[in-house]
Sequence to fold (447 residues):
Amino acid sequence: MIETFITIGNVLKKIRESRNLMLQDVATQTDINFTLLSRIETGKRLPTKEQIERLSVFYNYNKKELLKILISDKIFDEVKRYTAIDISLEALQLAEEKIKYQAYLFPRYEIEDNINLESRRYIGNKAKLTDWIMQVIDKETTDVKSFVDVFSGTASVAKKAMKKYKKVIINDILYSNYIIYQAFFKLENWNKNKLTKLLHYYNSINANKLQDNYFSENFGNKFFEYNIAKKIGFIREDIEKLKKDLKNKEYNILLSSLIYSMDKVANTVGHFDAYIKKPIRKTNFQVKLIKTEDFKGVEIYRKDANELARKITADIAYIDPPYNSRQYSRFYHLYETLVKWDKPKLYGVALKPKPENMSKYCTVKAKEMFRDLVQNLNVKYLVVSYNNTYKSKSKSSENKIKLEEINQILNEVGNTKVFEQPHRFFNTGKTDFVNHKEFLFLTKKYE
Ligand SMILES: C[S@@+](CC[C@H](N)C(=O)[O-])C[C@H]1O[C@@H](n2cnc3c(N)ncnc32)[C@H](O)[C@@H]1O
Fold:
């Protein structure tokens, strides 16, 4: 029995012997006293965490594994003092519950792998094109200090612009995007340790023990696996309860971390116009913290683009509007509902609230709006993204403005050059985009 007992001493001895090392060699190399090391291997002493660290480096052995054995030795040492085995076992069970449910009390817990801004499924996002876009801009413009991304979406282009320009203005009509921008970019103090502990607590909750809530009742087993939906609903409610004790930045970071983490387990092809009609696989849902990108020169708006144009000035305006009839506020209604948390009545198979923030760029008015926008933007350069999806087979993917029309409207306000790049982009499979190309118009506005 004792022979097979997994103790830290036994394990360290086995590792050493498997490497054909003498105790003296290890002692010298790790700077741990020979006698002490011998006592550790024979179980007369327990190593410190620091000694475990050194041994794991020296043996190139998994540190977590060694720590786990050490902690189990310590627990065992403690409980074996009590003769009644049932007391020991019950104490262990209680300790396990404490670890699971009150883990947020642990002071230095780290959630690894923070989530990047680009790590999000979003229709029409330009994350893969930002290098090309910025290269073109770099080559074609001079004396630029400020940049406005009028239809920011994920803000991947704006983030890139922050590496170059002093001031970057971000804007989108969606509430969820507005929250996300503040979370990622707004320069405000926040307590990472506090949020990490809170997420650790959320991640330790057993969803089976949670009650049904607005989120699970509406979206459970549709957009999310039932227990995951319950957990999301619980977390959202809890964040709202905590709001009064949180800084704005902390509140926004929590909501954004929830959105980015939800995206990883959503039962969709990347938007909430529909969910996949197959049984949903049970997966592990973990909320991870977003990786913030604080930027001193950021200005953030949630305005209609044409209204914004009349309010701000910048050197460059980057314009990437929706080009077809499919409304972003309908694609991402679930995040809008989550962020606003006004628990609206929902309609239809895709459980959408009443329409809000409907964009004129998705209607027959698109051309008129675009002309009004480029005329009213008080900037030196206009940079417009466009892709040739208007040849697509699906009606809803057809572009509201044609390539030639964009060209013509831009030429009315300045000298315009066109750049192009092949690009495979996000679609749900219905549309066959042959020769799909991404265009970039660069217009130097007339004085
Ligand atoms: C093609 S996406 C932009 C994608 C973005 N460049 C990226 O890399 O993620 C268009 C964005 O415009 C926003 N939008 C639509 N109509 C708008 C309007 N009238 N004013 C402001 N934003 C609008 C949508 O919510 C959507 O996020």
